[in-house]
Specification:
253 residues, alpha+beta, Porin, 2 domains, 8-stranded antiparallel barrel, 2 helices, 24% helix, elongated
Length: 253
């Protein structure tokens, strides 16, 4: 056989093998690419199913939430009477218990109970009292509780939902100032000055609600509340007026 013909035949065979190899590599790469795309589509499908199921569970569901935050009195609520026995702090810790019902995807009705309390009465030294030393104690404390009925409107239908909120209720306030003086020999005179009042309460606010799962939700809200004037100053305040920020954790039924 001619040497030139043999070389041409070998070259043709080698070229054919190279083409076949590259073709198979291309198919393999294409199959891997398709497989990756399928995985992404499947993952997106699972996320959509999860999102839709959580959105569905938002409808007509009852939520019970417990929260804790801070209440800040407005300066306009303070009494201008310089002879006030004492003043409560201008900010206090606040506990909240709320029951709400999402009767529509964007609307919820709720009832909530809020409570703040502060006590600042010095504790006397028992040994000083027993030894007959003079005792002089003065201090005060108080608490304010609210019961409110409200309506909440969600600005979007999603797992992360900002909202606006308004409510109406009643605030019950009580404070007590205690003064004690004397000793064991002559006796210790103790006097308590108690003040109580109730007033109508109005509240507006906004916040965010993030559904962590089908049965758990986290909420952070900001509120401004104001009441009618008290019958008498409570802890140095003429009314219940101020701002609050509260973090809540809810269980969905």
């Amino acid at each position: 056989m001619d040497t030139k013909a043999v070389k041409n035949k070998r070259t043709t065979t080698l070229g054919f093998l190279l083409i076949l190899i590259f073709h198979n590599l291309g198919l393999t790469g294409q199959e891997d690419y398709v497989w990756e795309v399928d995985k992404m589509l499947e993952r997106d499908k699972r996320n959509v199913i999860k999102h839709d199921s959580v959105i569905r569970c938002m409808r007509k569901k009852v939520m019970l939430s417990v929260g804790y935050g801070k209440w800040y009195f407005s300066n306009s609520a303070k009494s201008n009477n310089e002879e006030e026995l004492f003043f409560l702090s201008d900010n206090m810790g606040q506990w909240r218990l709320m029951l709400s019902w999402n009767f529509l995807e964007r609307l919820a009705a709720d009832i909530s109970v809020n409570y703040q309390m502060e006590k600042n009465v010095p504790t006397p030294d028992i040994m000083s009292i027993m030894s007959g030393e003079d005792v002089e104690i003065d201090g005060g404390g108080g608490g304010m509780g609210t019961v409110q009925l409200g309506i909440k409107y969600y600005l979007r239908k999603a797992l992360f939902r900002p909202y606006i909120h308004s409510s109406y209720g009643i605030v019950t306030a009580k404070s007590q100032y205690t003064k004690a003086e004397g000793n064991m020999d002559t006796g210790i005179n103790n006097t308590d000055y108690t003040f109580e009042s109730k007033a109508n309460l109005y509240n507006i606010g906004s916040g965010i609600d993030y559904r962590l799962g089908k049965n758990i939700s986290f909420c952070l809200d900001f509120n401004y509340a104001y009441s009618n004037p008290f019958d008498e100053p409570i802890g140095g305040y003429n009314s219940y007026r101020g701002f609050s920020i509260t973090a809540n954790l809810a269980i969905v039924f």
